[in-house]
From TrEMBL:
Coiled coil region boundaries: none
A Pfam family per the record: WD40
Domain of life: Bacteria
Protein name as catalogued: Uncharacterized protein
Keyword Signal tagged: no
Keyword Ribonucleoprotein: no
SMART domains named among the record's database cross-references: WD40 (SM00320)
Repeat (WD) residue spans along the chain: 64-105, 117-149, 201-232
UniProt KW keywords: WD repeat
């Protein structure tokens, strides 16, 4: 399809609104205002309006001679002032959004960590970066200094997210595991995810954790405070990426073969495809 790229849906109706044709196939992140969408390719990022119109293209990540280098995660800070982009070149780039512009800011060198995911703390002062070759790194956003590391209780970290109180949720593999680690280092009891490589990770406003597999159809949902957890019926095709709606009313996954699927608490449905 000549116009393949970033697709935007009306989540209330499931209607496809637009396909941008920007040929980006990497991670996505909505700005907290809901007015901008960041869409990554291998080394560049498009900032799009709600209508799909491109506002800026951000460059700076390097491909070098490594054909496997790519941007693997994006996140806006809670106040919307910063965008963080994570690349397998082992860097995080920060981009500052202000006065109708998006400007390159600091670059974080992750050393030997082969990164997989990142997450801003609820107050926006810290950035957590997870990868399979070391502990989770915690960076101060203001002075761009690494302030501590957090070991996963089991396995090698793949996914990281924050609960509303600032605690970290870490998903790991070999063995597959979930953990909640608070600021003191205490680990909260947690279920085992169904996925062998729990890569996709999302937390709802009520601290309900959804975790999906990197290449299978399993999704585990865990209410951290209530303690209940369940494995959802298999998502058709796969459940590579998982994301709660902003109000926690629905869960969305990206399936390699069936597009975008929606879980409404009872069943999966498929959004309209291009």
């Amino acid at each position: 399809m000549e116009d393949w790229g970033t697709a935007i849906w009306d989540t209330a109706s499931g209607e496809l609104l637009t396909v941008t044709g920007n040929h980006r196939r990497g991670p996505l992140a909505w700005h907290p205002s809901g007015d901008m969408l960041a869409a990554a390719g291998r080394s560049q990022i498009d900032i799009l309006g709600r209508d799909g119109a491109r506002q800026w293209t951000l460059t700076g990540h390097s491909l070098g001679k490594d054909e496997d280098r790519r941007i693997v995660d994006l996140a806006f800070s809670p106040d919307g002032a910063l965008l963080a982009s994570l690349s397998t070149e082992r860097t995080v780039r920060l981009w500052r959004i202000r006065e109708g512009a998006c400007e390159a800011a600091q670059v974080i060198d992750l050393g030997d960590l082969m990164p997989a995911s990142l997450s801003f703390s609820p107050d926006g002062t810290e950035l957590a970066v997870a990868g399979a070759t070391g502990p989770v790194q915690i960076w101060s956003v203001y002075d761009v200094e690494r302030i501590r590391t957090v070991e996963a209780p089991e396995g090698s970290p793949l996914g990281v997210a924050h609960l509303s109180d600032g605690s970290l949720v870490i998903s790991s593999y070999e063995p597959a595991a979930l953990a909640v680690v608070d600021s003191s280092g205490a680990v909260r009891a947690r279920p085992s995810p169904a996925a062998a490589r729990p890569y996709g990770l999302s937390v709802s406003p009520e601290d309900v954790v959804a975790v999906s597999g990197e290449s299978d159809d399993t999704v585990t949902v865990w209410d951290v405070h209530g303690g209940q957890h369940r494995d959802l019926p298999p998502a058709r095709g796969s459940a590579y990426r998982v994301q709660w709606a902003h109000d926690g009313s629905a869960l969305y996954v990206v399936s390699w073969t069936f597009g975008v699927l929606r879980w409404d608490g009872t069943q999966w449905s498929r959004l309209q495809m291009p």
